[in-house]
Amino acid sequence: MLVTLNDVLKKARREHYAVPAFDCNDDLLIRTILDTAEEKKSPVILMVLEHDLKGRGMHYISSIIKGVANDYDIPIVLHLDHSVHFDFVKSAIENGFTSVMYDGSALPYEENVARMQKVVKYAKDRGVTVEGELGHVAGKDIDGSSQGETFLTEPEDVAKFVDETGVDALAVSIGTAHGVYVSTPNLKIDRLKEINRISTVPLVLHGGSGTPVDQVQNAIRNGISKVNLYADLRIAMFNGVKKSVTVQKRIDPLPDELFEETRIAIRNVVLQKIAMTMSENKA
Fold it and tell me: How far, CA to CA in Å, does 28 sit from each of 35, 87, 160, 262?
């Protein structure tokens, strides 16, 4: 069933687990994620990036998720991830997304606030929840380009930002990075504790892939309620495709045979992330 961020994150914050949030763009990912989450009775957030919504992607992907959501007995959030264009936000809401993220984290504070206010008003008038970001999580974009420097979230800005924008969830920068790590991160848990003490809304950790499990769980125990994940899924898909090539015994395998190893690899990652976020049996 389709729900909003508020329907899953408030409970997660109270009970000290996080909801796994997976970027996805096709049936193979969507079906495997949802089947696995339902098996483990875990709420789940299916996120889609602007990159995958261009052309017919907006209608295609949203139609798949909306079409199957009621067949699953778990809460499912359909979430626009890292949008930097207001027109994309509007289109996502018009196409049934239940949650949106506008990423103004690279902007000066006042401009970030002004743009977030516009997004929040449009979304909340239509019953859609909004995630904002304060501070900036760097790393690699999906095309391999740099996302610039990391700027840690300043605790003293949090209460003001949440109050001025009205966001429902806040992504914070505490030492993670997008993409594949080149060195092991060291999350700033003391800073997170201070942010969580101040924040009136659930907190989000971007760059969950590759972050050591003990650090992620420590972050969850200290205020993180949503963990974003994508790079680990992409790595699993790549490894699954490579294995499929080696195990096929015929030149015309059926699609379910061809993609079986990839599906298994994705499922294993989803199982690991549900365990990491401690969301099993929380649906």
Answer: 11, 28, 41, 9
CB of 166 closer than 8 Å to CB of 132: no
For strand 76-83 and strand 44-49, is the pairing parallel, antiparallel, or unpaired? Answer: parallel
- Architecture in CATH of 2-277: Alpha-Beta Barrel (3.20)
Copy the structure tokens of residue 275: 């365990």
Q: Which residues are catalytic?
A: 81
Rounded to the nearest 5°, which phi and psi values hold at 102? -105, 125
Number of H helices, E strands in the chain: 12, 9
Place of tokens 């959030």: 77
Within the chain, which residues score under 50 in pLDDT?
A: 139-140, 142-149, 181-182
Domain boundaries, given as residue ranges, for the chain? 2-277
Angstrom distance (rounded) from CA 158 to CA 152:
12
